[in-house]
Amino acid sequence: MNKVFISGNLGSQPEAKQTKSGMAVTNLSVATNERTKVDGEWTDHTEWHQVTVFGGQATNCAKWLTKGSKVLVEGKLRTRKWTDANGNERKTTEIVADRVEFMSKAANAVNGSAPPPASKWPDDEIPF
Predict the structure, then answer these.
(1) Domain residue ranges of the chain, discontinuous segments joined by +
(2) Average of pLDDT values for 48-73?
(3) Which of 46, 117, 118, 119 has the smallest number of CB atoms closer than 10 Å to its CB?
(4) How many CA atoms lie within 13 A of 93 on its CB side?
């Protein structure tokens, strides 16, 4: 089973794009924090996760989330391979989101409006 859950804060503004077929795609950079005690000293560790969101959820993430927003992401791990401009083979592992839950007040909320609840977001198929 390939299932991952993370809860953290956006480290940058969401990056909205579209696929060649016109489907909305939003990339998120999410920081998770872990605090451990080693030899009596507390140590903090921040892990950065690249998250890709498709379809209606991507549109809502781009509209309602901002740098610093707290989110809960449910999804799966994917590894992509490509060749960069210098001909070097590269790869990256990212989280492809099945669901993104907004955990903090929306920065774009105006006059009491708020993002739609996750249950009302359309279910879009991920294109792979």
Answers:
(1) 4-36+43-115
(2) 96
(3) 119
(4) 6
- Is the pLDDT assigned to residue 27 strictly greater than 90? yes
Please tell me what DSSP assigns to residue 116. Answer: P
Across 1-128, where does the E strand assignment appear?
4-10, 15-18, 24-38, 41-54, 70-83, 89-102
Q: Are 33 and 8 in contact (CB under 8 A)?
A: yes
What are 79's two structure tokens?
């590894």
pLDDT at 119 over 50: no
- What torsion, rounded to 10 degrees, do the Cα atoms 66, 67, 73, 75 define? 90
**What's the half-sphere exposure (Cβ side, CA atoms, 13 Å) at 112?**
0
| CB atoms inside a 10 Å sphere around CB 122 | 9
What phi, psi does 127 have (nearest 5°)?
-80, 55
Residue that the structure tokens 């080693």 belong to:
38
In which residue are the tokens 């060749």 written?
83
For the 4-36+43-115 domain, the top CATH level (class) is mainly beta
Per-residue pLDDT at 104:
84
Quote the CA–CA distance of 58 and 65 in Å, as a whole number. Answer: 10
